[in-house]
Amino acid sequence: MATSTFDTLLQKIETRAARAGIIGLGYVGLPLAIAVARSGFAVTGFDIDPGKMVALEARRSYIDAVSNEALATEIEAGRFQATTDFVGLAECDIIIICVPTPLTKHRDPDLSFVETTSRSIAEHLRPGQLVALESTTYPGTTDDIVKVILEGTGLKSGADFFVGFSPEREDPGNQHYHTATIPKVVAGDGAEALALMKAFYGAAVSTVVPVSSNATAEAVKLTENIFRSVNIALVNELKTVYAAMGIDVWEVIEAAKTKPFGYMPFYPGPGLGGHCIPIDPFYLTWKSREYELPTRFIELAGEINSAMPRYVVGKLAEALDMRAGKALSRSRVLVLGLAYKKNVADIRESPSLRLIEIIEERGGRADYHDPFVAEIPPTREYQALKGRKSVTLTPEAVAGYDAVLVATDHDSVDYAALAKTAALIVDTRNVFNRLGLSADHIIKA
């Protein structure tokens, strides 16, 4: 039966007769759905958020990586549809899971979304389907959780259905790479599952990178983000040390990166943001406890990066005291940039939220300006900030603040005008120096 089921599904994929179901239409799922639809497959997107359905029905994309035009093209061509009704999973030949994998408040993996989604798939599982997980997680999740839940139906992986893993590699705001051009790591539970993963993803993306097991593919994604986390922590720590010595860490990095070998530049900031780098390393930390192995580098990097917002607010308080003779507790501060990185609207795990919280814990008043985020949406950790609106960046508004704290260096901001009107600027991104704007009231942090 395995060969017959495999051959039938492989032929459906190769002829684009297979229907793909994408569960989770967020930053990962929606761009993937459109890329798969463009490659000729019929795609059904599933999500529990009715608000997304309203937007998609109106041909309105809520993800920067997907234009309204691209969305409308695939909908009107009949290649993409979206629904909150998971009954449609039974009609899908390929099912891709793109749901969140956050941490609990104790930094343990929260796989509730993956487990719930797997149970929903199990309710509609039938022979001849390929189920792939894209959500970042610890090695073993696909085989030990997703596969086990699906086999609870009595159907068997590798015989009746197939299971694989392919880590998402989305980079919001990246103008050079998008879903279809980023190399895709793929793996499967057995040779046939891997062959199906290669065939399906190979039809939608330019390059497929097969690896030997689902656990290996899961480890690939963790390794990529741990690499970034550790190196960012290193330059954040160097920033604090060099600042104490009167040395500009950004000048050091610019000079160091002229070496054509053996060095790769990373840059300090006010803390880590985004769904991946602040979270993913702790999935491996948690899993390593099962093997009684320490992950000292990972945990130390997390501690350093998590401490950056408080360090930055300390530098802000120091600058207010030294330059304006005013305590932070009596000051109004404008945080420039709410998104975790420039030129996007993504505020997931943004250090700006923590900066606002710390400023107000210390008695100050913090507002924010972000050209991409008009209002702070509900978040799990910062409920008190919900509903606050972006301040319009006029000279009169800026002049009303005791300091401007640059947390995100969006390109659309007029930094020259800001330098003229702000009483004090604390720059965590070195944007003013990069633009050749220097003055006594501009402080790096």
UniProtKB/TrEMBL annotation:
Residues 334-434 form the UDP-glucose/GDP-mannose dehydrogenase C-terminal domain. It comes from the Bacteria. GO terms for molecular function: NAD binding; oxidoreductase activity, acting on the CH-CH group of donors, NAD or NADP as acceptor; oxidoreductase activity, acting on the CH-OH group of donors, NAD or NADP as acceptor. GO terms for biological process: polysaccharide biosynthetic process. The keyword Protein transport does not apply. InterPro entries: 6-PGluconate_DH-like_C_sf, NAD(P)-bd_dom_sf, UDP-Glc/GDP-Man, UDP-Glc/GDP-Man_DH_C, UDP-Glc/GDP-Man_DH_C_sf, UDP-Glc/GDP-Man_DH_dimer, UDP-Glc/GDP-Man_DH_N, UDP_ManNAc/GlcNAc_DH. Keywords: NAD, Oxidoreductase. Gene3D superfamilies: NAD(P)-binding Rossmann-like Domain (3.40.50.720). It holds the Pfam family UDPG_MGDP_dh_C. NCBIfam families: NDP-sugDHase. Belongs to the UDP-glucose/GDP-mannose dehydrogenase family. This is UDP-N-acetyl-D-glucosamine dehydrogenase. It comes from Rhizobium aethiopicum. The lineage of its organism: Bacteria, Pseudomonadati, Pseudomonadota, Alphaproteobacteria, Hyphomicrobiales.
